[in-house]
Amino acid sequence: MSDRYLELVNSSVGSAVASRVGLPRPAKLRRFADDAPILPGPALLGSTAGRVPAALKKLVTSAGVEVLDSIDKLSTGERVAAAVLDARSIATPGDLAALRAFLAPAVKALAPSGRVIVLGVPADGADVRVDATRQALDGIVRSLAKELRAGATANLLWVADDASLGAALRFFLSGRSAYVDGQPLLLGPGVAPAPKDWTRPLTGKTALVTGAARGIGAAIAGVLARDGANVIAADLTQAGEALAKVANRIGGTALHLDVAAADAPQRLIDHLGAQTSGLDILVHNAGITRDKLMANMKPEQWDSVIAVNLESQLTINAALLASDQLNDQSRTVSLSSTTGFSGNRGQTNYGATKAGVIGLVRSSAAAFAAHGNGTINAVAPGFIDTDMTAKMPLATREVARRLSSLQQAGLPVDVAEAVSWLASPGAGGVTGQVLRVCGQNLVGA
Ligand SMILES: NC(=O)c1ccc[n+]([C@@H]2O[C@H](COP(=O)([O-])OP(=O)(O)OC[C@H]3O[C@@H](n4cnc5c(N)ncnc54)[C@H](O)[C@@H]3O)[C@@H](O)[C@H]2O)c1
């Protein structure tokens, strides 16, 4: 469903009117395009330690990005497409002044859909002064993200280990992260090999996506296939026709699977055994809503949502881990929701499952790591334009669309890009995490 308001305020008349009366002016976001570079201009690099580490510079230049090491090298009127600040050296509140000194001029020079990325070290409990200073980065980045306009984003990478730093920088600098804003993400140790071909990092991988007949699931199947994976698109039998179309479009195969059926785990394992050489990527996307206020909630509305959105993921994961069908360095990604953080009126059942998924990935990381260095993460979409959100009353939907720092709903492809990145070999240092794809949703952000 197209966002007519966004189209309007990006026309010359609409833009002038919106600016005069102070209405939100959502920008057209820079998204992935086949022929586009990771970044359409130079990245300004800085470090709170003074000198930018050579290793960081190399990671950025090897992604094909031109690097500027001083804003003074910018000619008048020239913009930077990104500003990357290595703040891993900070140790006292006084050190935070270096962030202002770098970011204030950098933000002024930031191009539309620009990227601000701050690197920090997670607090470790060793020294209260250091920990308090490190944690301050979270407040700076979240606040800055709320100030940026014209489709620009700010995100924070907590670098406990740099195994996945290169892959993370490529994702966060590129159009793939268009709707990820104001988010912290922990990069830990892990097996995170660089792919042979960064443009098709999933080549040779077998992926299964549940609920793939439409909406976010169909977009995930499409992006995984674009990135090189052989995709099995799974959905309910009644979604058969739509599912077949998705499978044909992406050059994948279709599987009729009700994830909440008692025999779903075994059917899945039998299918993998017969048709594949094991599963590399599993995306738990199938999900339903049965919204009712708690006072009016019927048992079947409660039970069906718990069964599809949460119980199915637990049983399928357990069966796969116990089988011989999950390959080494597997990637599992579960669909949570910002409702899992913030709650939502009329969604106690749905909120339970989406918060439950967060608990599930945190608690499962060790088991997946023990199974050939696999990872498991969740992606929590905010307001995404799909059939699920099309059911909302018009006025509620229009308001909800503007309630994020990017002042617009995300697209299914935005969620799919995040899933595909977490599913890639280079993301092996990210596990047990939840990445919100919500444009910095102002509800519970
Ligand atoms: N749309 C949003 O704004 C939004 C926001 C946050 C989270 N999410 C989550 O993203 C996921 C996809 O959402 P969507 O908006 O694309 O939903 P959707 O309703 O458009 O599509 C869901 C798909 O899942 C399938 N499905 C339902 N029950 C199933 C079952 N038992 N077995 C197999 N497949 C089943 C449906 O047939 C459908 O094709 C869901 O988990 C949802 O909770 C969506």
Overview of the molecule:
By secondary structure, the protein is an alpha/beta fold. The protein has two domains: 157 residues, NAD(P)-binding Rossmann-like Domain (Rossmann fold); 232 residues, NAD(P)-binding Rossmann-like Domain (Rossmann fold). Helices cover 39% and strands 18% of the residues. The protein contains 15 helices and 13 strands. The strands form two sheets. A seven-stranded parallel beta sheet has the order 9-8-7-10-11-12-13, sandwiched between helices. The protein has a six-stranded parallel beta sheet with strand order 2-1-3-4-5-6, with helices on both faces. Strand 7, helix 7 and strand 8 form a beta-alpha-beta unit. Helix 7 packs parallel to helix 8, helix 9 runs parallel beside helix 10 and helix 10 runs parallel beside helix 12. The chain is globular and about 65 Å long. Bound molecules: nicotinamide-adenine-dinucleotide (NAD). Nicotinamide-adenine-dinucleotide (NAD) binds next to helix 7 and helix 13.
